[in-house]
Design a protein that fits this description.
The complex is a heterodimer. By secondary structure, chain A is α+β, with helices and mostly antiparallel strands. Chain A is built from 19 helices and 28 strands. By secondary structure, chain B is α+β, with helices and mostly antiparallel strands. The chains are: A alpha+beta, B alpha+beta. The structure holds FE2/S2 (inorganic) cluster (2 copies).
Chain lengths: 789, 161
């Protein structure tokens, strides 16, 4: 293995530019002649627009033009990328999502008008002079009320506020009802999966630049998937053919899902740059991000778990109301359905599962994927209800899980919710986590806490996720309006250095380092000879980008396939140069050798021959050494793991302290352990944030009460512990060439139930009759629950 | 508009600012030092931390004209001319203390100030000092390790390797 090959904790090359202030984020890009866009946004949740008077504002200094919906009559709305079919076979209700509000405003933050001016300050000043006549309407906020007959409608042209009523697996509906009715024991839990804001530290930014000389548009944007933006915006919104539209996502300061989606601001700056014939820049403020970035989660759920007399799970039934917000964001309909329902078997052999999801429009910011996307919601309810069942039955929560786990010899395992897990060993990860946390020693630790007047709790969760999305033909059947393959071009230069153009996108994950490790391993040359290029539609082949922990599993696989093609061709060239048969050529450590001889050629000699083909089999082989591969996965990957949280609750205040957080993950093979651990740390921190701190709150008028870092509690250094992570339990994926499963979302999926289970454990040990507290388990919620329990 | 002069990373720089121009805008837009970032509008995130006359300051909390004549050090002024990283920068790379890199300039500037004030901080000291620096990517674990290591202390005492 070369020093920086697969399995090495290679330090990240991208760090140097970030550590020295030389990163190139979208807001760092300033164009000659640039103008500034400021969006005037609705400050009410629901209202009828009677009039927008821009006359005074247009006269303000520096103002170039003010745009309203009237300027976009010819343009399409922001499209939704996934069409869900409901349980009656009807397609979902899909409202128009205009670039600027048409006729009505539907959430606080809905853009009404845009001022473009010579400076940002001038644009903001002018926006204040726009006179709005908007008649307030009753806001639709409560999902269950929203779908009652006669409820005020968010979209007047839809029949109701119900986007869809989805059932899965619909054929199992009655069998599940029956199994629950006849069960030995049923554990029921009602819960809320709290609404969150992803809050990558870099707010969204978009710069549009139109070039009149060649009729080409360039959009620089903070995106996780520039080709997806090009496709959606070019084809559906602005009607710009792809060869005239370049989308660049340079250094991107975190995404976590909310930078997947195509947003109105991107379409606006792109189009306005042509109208004004000047570059147009928009930079979100954080306050604006809180009301305009798609939010995450927001499910209201009731789950029932049926068990037989041997405590084997016989059925799961779950009903969820999923908030879509005011419009359908790019992937929104798929999150509570296909990314959620298909995970409701969890790690268990439960034979019957029925999932019902009602997706509802409300006068709130749209909701879409946030780290984990659907899988945290599935895992939270399942791991909470299993824990509750164990407590009701008086059995050890670890034992109850172990008993119901799919056994290692049962893989590949067909779940009753349409997916087939290829590999896994849940017993191994559970045992590992129990050992790491000294489960046996917990009672002594609890006694020690008690002696100090504190309540100690031990919380376990075991999760499964479906990553590496996704097989295109399968998701097509499920309603995806795009393929979900990935692409890579491997360009070998004459002197042997390599540029890899990947359709994956790094916004913190470290692809520039880890992807290079893979190619270095395959060819046997140092990783520093290999550059990873991403984030520019004019440079990389059509790719679907980074989300759903898909980069290494799908993008990495495409890169492996392209590199295999390179190696095959290089071997042919080497065979010619070495006058040997192709089958005898071996490539190792960057040297081509002929089996059984001492003849050899260096990598660089062969690559040079490809571009200077003086002695070359031109009759049978093209010169050059550049190959592209598109990889479409045949299945999802299924990372899994056991997460354990130990907490101490202060019974006087309800304050929860996390004493330790331990993870034992099975990610299959891993490329760079340091990077993998970093991904787990970050995911766990976001999961703890959801469990303990973060919560989007609207008041009864639909005003966002948590609209800044002053009111929305982001996890800070002092809120979090050091983590103990392990990834030694590895059951490699069987259907991709690297045997990898992906690690980006695991932390955020497995951690919230571990935290809440620990808090409940602490309270019950302390004699409080509390069996659930909704997240975030803030001191006031814990304290209130204790007063009632 | 007024013309301001300040010493930035050892060099005298001048530029124009309105009365309402924040120091961070002046650094980014006028002096084109885009290493200092803006992550919020409520002075909570710390992505904008620079040193003003030797003290760490959130450059979004200060008007540019308040810094007229001051000595400013930004992230661009940390590594040596030949590219050699400072001990704090190097420790961030060694311990994977950054992912997307957006919070990183502020983290490095805060950490550098901390070690000047408190050369051997405990884990708790570091966590407390970073109260005003939010990172969404790393979960802080590796940032804490990096700063601890940069102070010359043995990180194995706070985290398993
Ligand atoms: S930008 Fe200064 S604290 Fe956030
Ligand atoms: S590294 Fe991304 S916010 Fe800290």
């Amino acid at each position: 293995m070369p020093k920086d090959g697969i399995g090495a904790s290679t330090k990240r090359r991208e760090d140097i530019r970030f550590l020295t202030g030389n990163g190139n984020y979208t807001d760092d890009i300033n164009m000659h002649g640039q103008t500034y866009a400021h969006f005037l946004r609705s400050d009410i949740a629901h209202g009828k627009i009677n009039n927008i008077d821009t006359s005074a504002a247009s006269e303000m200094p520096g103002v170039l033009r003010i745009f309203t919906a009237a300027d976009f009559e010819e343009k399409g709305g922001i499209p939704c990328g996934w069409q869900v079919t409901d349980r009656f076979g009807e397609v979902m209700q899909e409202p128009k999502h205009p670039i600027l509000a048409e006729g009505k405003v539907r959430h606080v933050g809905d853009p009404i008008a845009v001022v473009v001016a010579e400076s940002l300050e001038q644009a903001r000043d002018a926006a204040e002079a726009i006179e709005l006549d908007i008649e307030e309407l009753e806001p639709v906020l409560n999902m269950k009320e929203a779908i009652k007959d006669g409820a005020t409608k968010v979209h007047d042209d839809l029949t109701s506020n119900l986007c869809y009523d989805w059932g899965f697996v619909e054929e199992n509906r009655e069998a599940v009802d029956e199994a629950i009715k006849n069960a030995h024991h049923v554990t029921t839990l009602e819960l809320v999966n709290n609404r969150l804001v992803a809050n990558p530290m870099e707010p969204r930014v978009a710069v549009g630049d139109y070039n009149r000389s060649n009729d080409e548009f360039t959009l620089y944007t903070t995106s996780q998937n520039p080709h997806v933006i090009r496709l959606l915006m070019g084809a559906f919104v602005l009607n710009i053919p792809e060869h005239k539209l370049r989308v660049v996502a340079p250094d991107v300061g975190g995404g976590f899902g909310t930078k997947i989606f195509h947003y109105a601001e991107e379409a606006f700056v792109t189009w306005a740059s042509k109208v004004l014939n000047r570059p147009v820049k928009w930079t979100s403020t954080r306050s604006e991000a809180f009301i305009s970035d798609a939010h995450g989660r927001d499910h209201v759920t009731k789950i029932e778990l049926a068990l037989d007399e041997n405590h084997m799970f016989t059925a799961v039934r779950t009903d969820t109301y999923a908030n879509m917000g005011a419009y359908l964001s790019t992937f929104a309909p798929s999150i509570p359905t296909w990314l959620h329902g298909t995970l409701m078997a969890g790690n268990y052999t439960t034979p019957l599962v029925y999932v019902n999801v009602k997706a509802v429009f409300t006068n709130t910011t749209p909701v879409d994927a946030y780290r984990g996307a659907g899988r945290p919601e599935a895992t939270f309810q399942l791991e909470r209800v299993v824990d509750k069942a164990a407590r009701e039955l008086g059995v050890d929560p670890a034992e109850l899980r172990r008993k119901n786990f799919i056994k290692p010899e049962q893989f590949p395992y067909d779940t009753p919710v349409a997916v087939t897990y290829d590999t896994g060993n849940y017993h191994a990860t559970l045992d590992k986590a129990l050992e790491m946390t000294d489960y046996a020693g917990f009672e002594a630790r609890a006694a020690e806490s008690k002696a100090r007047g504190k309540l100690r709790g031990y919380g376990l969760a075991h999760f499964i996720e479906a990553c590496g999305i996704a097989p295109s033909n399968l998701v097509g059947q499920l309603g995806a309006r795009a393929g979900l393959y990935e692409s890579a071009t491997v360009r070998v230069n004459a002197t042997g250095s390599i540029s890899v153009m990947t359709g994956s996108h790094s916004h913190g994950q470290g692809h520039e380092t880890t992807f290079a490790q893979v190619v270095a391993e395959m060819i046997g040359i140092p990783a520093d000879q290999i550059d990873i290029v991403h984030g520019d539609t004019s440079k990389v082949p059509m790719g679907m980008g980074t989300y759903g922990s898909r980069s290494i599993a799908v993008g990495g696989s495409a890169m492996v396939r392209a590199t295999e093609k390179i190696i095959n061709k290089a071997k042919k060239i080497a065979a010619h140069l070495l006058e040997a048969s192709e089958g005898d050529i071996e490539l190792k450590d960057g040297q081509f050798t002929v089996a059984g001889t001492d003849k050899s050629l260096a990598w660089g000699e062969v690559t040079l021959a490809a571009y200077v083909p003086h002695n070359y089999p031109l009759e049978s082989l093209e010169p050059g050494l550049e190959e592209t591969a598109f990889y479409d996965p045949s299945n999802f990957t299924y990372p899994s793991g056991a997460y354990i949280c130990e907490v101490e609750v202060d019974p006087d205040t309800g304050k929860v302290d996390i004493l330790s957080f331990t993870t034992a993950d099975d990610f299959g093979n891993i490329i760079n352990p340091m990077v993998v651990e970093g991904q787990v740390h970050g995911g766990v921190a976001q999961g703890i944030g959801q469990a303990m701190l973060e919560n989007v709150t609207y008041d009864e008028n639909g005003q966002l009460l948590t609209g800044s870092f002053m009111d929305y509690a982001m996890p800070r250094a002092s809120d979090l512990p050091m983590y103990s992570t392990d990834h030694s339990c590895q059951t490699p994926c069987t259907h991709n060439p690297l045997g990898v499963k992906g690690c980006g979302e695991a932390g955020a999926i497995g951690s919230p139930p571990a935290v809440v289970n620990a808090v409940i454990d602490a309270l019950q040990r302390g004699g409080y009759n509390v069996d659930h507290i909704d997240m975030p388990v803030s001191p006031s919620r814990v304290w209130s629950a204790m007063q009632k329990g | 508009m007024t013309t301001l002069t300040m010493k930035v990373n050892g060099k005298t720089r001048t530029g124009d600012a309105e009365g309402r121009t924040l120091l961070v805008q002046f650094l980014r837009d006028e002096l084109e030092l885009t290493g200092t970032h803006v992550g919020c509008d409520t002075s909570q995130c710390g992505a904008c931390v620079v040193h003003v006359n030797g003290k760490p300051v959130k450059s979004c909390t200060m008007f540019a004209n308040e810094a007229d004549g001051a000595e400013i050090v930004t992230i661009e002024g940390q590594a040596a001319e030949d590219g050699t990283l400072t001990a704090v920068q190097q420790a961030f790379q060694d311990h994977h203390g950054l992912q997307c890199g957006f919070c990183t300039p502020g983290m490095v500037m805060s950490a550098t100030a901390l070690l000047k004030e408190n050369p051997k901080p405990t884990e708790a000291d570091i966590r407390h000092y970073l109260e005003g620096n939010i990172c969404r990517c790393t979960g802080y674990h590796n940032i804490i390790k990096a700063i601890y290591a940069a102070s010359g202390q043995d990180v194995s005492s706070i985290a398993a390797e």
